[in-house]
Amino acid sequence: MFLRFNFKYFSIKKTTLLFCLIIFFGCFTRYPDLSAQQKVDSLNKLASQYLYRQLDTCFFYLSAARNAARESGYKKGEAQAYRTLGTYYGYRENGYLSFRFYQDALRTYEALGDSAGMCLLNMDIGIYYQFEGKHQEALPYIKKSIDISRHIRKDRLYFPVLTAYYFIYRFDSVHANDAINALRAARRLADKYGDVGMVLQTGMLEADELLDKGDTAKAIAQLSAITAEALRRGSAYHAIYGLSQMAEYKSLQHQADSLHYYRQVMVNIAMMTGYRESILAEALDLYSYYEEHGPADSLTHYSSVIAEIMEKQDKSKTQGELDYVDYYMQKKQLRELQLQHDYQQQLLERKTTASRDRYIIIITLIILLLLTVLLLIEVNRSHRRSGKNAKHLGEKNREISDKNILLRTHDDFKNKLISLIAHDFRGPLIHITDITSLLKDELLTFDDAAKLFKRLESNSEHTLHVFDNILRWINSQLSGFVYTPVPCRPATMIREALEALKDGCEEKSLQINMQLPEEILLLADREMLQFVHRNLLHNAVKFSLASGTIHIFATRQNGALTVCFKDEGKGIQPEVLARIFEYQDTPRSNGGAGLALIICKDFMDKMNGTIQAVNNRDKGCTFSYTLPVIKHQIP
Predict the structure, then answer these.
(1) Inter-residue contact 400 to 318 (CB < 8 Å)
(2) What is the rounded end-to-end Cα distance, in angstroms, of the chain?
(3) Phi/psi of residue 634, nearest 5 degrees
(4) pLDDT at residue 468 above 60?
(5) How far apart are CA 161 and CA 125, in angstroms?
(6) Secondary structure (3-state) at 605
(7) What is the domain partition of the chain in residue ranges?
(8) Residue pair 271/312 in contact by the 8 Å Cβ criterion
(9) d(Cα 359, Cα 356) in Å, to the nearest integer?
(10) Which of 70, 94, 347, 406 lies 20 to 30 Å (CA to CA) from residue 245?
């Protein structure tokens, strides 16, 4: 393939963040002779450079630039930060905040009389409306942007406006030729001034033109070269955009494998460089693909990717809205302070001019006193409203945080339920599949088949019984986990669990030595406890040697009962034993068994019990759990 990744441009490790901090603080410490405006301009320039490379780093510099501009009162620098924030939130798929920051930047530039800034902002808003599908609303802004750029006559300002003109009018039959000419002119100017971003962008648009004309091979070749150049230069945004176009081209050529590959690359780059929200659709498509075709590891990976994107999207949206509210409140407070300052100035002037006339002074003071009282009342009301708003926002944030914690708790429990079902029914289903394969290949005699069918009937009945019990238990927990303990008789439950393992015991000629009093009752959730029984017995049978003995016995101490399952196998390696109830892919855990033990530990924690595993002195190991006894204590 033409793609060779230069990941050094996309890395966001701790070293990169440290480097960003060094640059940021260097602007304020190493160069004390820089003016406040120069510092703001430098931060804005850094943010613009990272806008197409690393979105999270871009936001870091934008926040610093905006705060520095506010503190120094540098309006032009603040407007530039707002414009870049509009583009930033556009890439974050937050159209509301994108439009609001564009509007704020435009108003600031209009107040300053900055024609270049007004030109660019009108272009940005026109493109925003076009992306929103509002073509008629976009036209006035792009026309105004073109008029201003023609008046200014600056080429470096004119060629992005030409590109925007092409973007808006490319499908307009009346202006189609003008749009193509605008694109060509923009490309010439981009080459002339060496603007890498515009060269990449216009090149990709030219590839679209080639595709529209039917020259698919040339379009793909041009887009491949441009995308490779974007990757080489570390321009993540253009690389993602190019890969998206490449996927579309391959889709038109019905090249499913290539389409799948480009989507994977897009997702990987976007997750590393902060453009997560822009590839949510591709991540969902990849999840659907792996859900249908496998493997499970890829399905799990893209499930995690989707969850991370949605979590970051919600967090970014919430944080952005809070930042905007904070910005709005600061502007309101600034206006109030300005009004107070103007009022005090007028008061001094009135006192100076009215000093000759005593009655005029008295009347003026009375009027001013009344105005001051009214102003203080209004300021007090505003302060109380601000306090209420802040309190309300705090309560909302706490409510959202509590709901998120509850949702994660419920989601974790439901995942445990799914794992529980998979663990308990995987074995019997595989056994059924093996039997049907043997029957299909005609490898069994009639007598062997009859014996297998008898065993199959017994296993199926037991599996169905277990399935019914678990379904009833899951149905009671659908709204979230609620622990409701009931009296449980472990001796009876263990015998039930052993029925499903009868064949395994017979194959290994295992003896079951159970010394557990029938009258013992424990306080637990029955299905949780039975899952623990089935798993510990299954492990004991699985790792026991032939002709061995499994010992099941109980001890009591301080009103609690410890039920032990002792096998005569090879035991557990010490490094595995230390983390046996944590996830680990080892020969003893065998992947699925390790997950089952994790669920056992989780269930015992929920039932206010404990679970342990130790190696025996002679051979084998012993798994045990401890729960409170409610009656019929052991003698």
Answers:
(1) yes
(2) 75
(3) -70, 135
(4) no
(5) 12
(6) helix
(7) 14-95, 354-476, 483-631
(8) no
(9) 9
(10) 94
306/483 Cα distance (integer angstroms): 31
Q: What is the DSSP letter of 554?
A: E
The Cα 605–Cα 581 span in angstroms is 12
Which value, in Å, is the radius of gyration of the alpha carbons in the chain?
36
> What's the mean pLDDT in 505-514?
92
**Chain position carrying tokens 């099941």:** 552
Q: Map 478-529 to HEC letters.
A: CCCCCCCCEEECHHHHHHHHHHCCHHHHHHHCCEEEEECCCCCEEEECHHHH
Helices 95-112 and 115-131 pack at an angle, to 10 degrees, of 160
Residue 87: exposed, middle, or buried by beta-carbon count in 10 A (0-12, 13-18, 19+)? buried
pLDDT at 10 over 50: no
For residues 579 and 587, what is the distance between their CA atoms, to the nearest angstrom?
Answer: 13
In this structure, what token pair is assigned to residue 64?
């610093």
Report the Cα 316 to chain-centroid distance in Å.
Answer: 10
For domain 483-631, the CATH superfamily is Histidine kinase-like ATPase, C-terminal domain (3.30.565.10)
> What percent of the chain stands above pLDDT 70?
73
Average pLDDT over residues 574-600: 71
401, two tokens: 């945080």
Provide the β-strand partners of residue 552. Answer: 514, 565
CB 54 within 8 A of CB 276: no
Q: Give the separation between CA 182 and CA 142, rounded to whole angstroms.
A: 13
- Residue 584: its H or E element: none
Tokens representing residue 551 in the block: 């010992």
The one-letter amino acid at 557: Q
pLDDT at site 615: 95
Q: Residue 607 in contact with residue 528, Cβ under 8 Å?
A: yes
Q: How many CB atoms within 10 Å of residue 352?
A: 8
Average pLDDT, the chain: 78
Asked whether the beta carbons of 339 and 372 are under 8 A apart, the reply is no
Provide the phi-psi class of 590: left if phi over 0, else alpha when psi is between -120 and 50, else beta. left
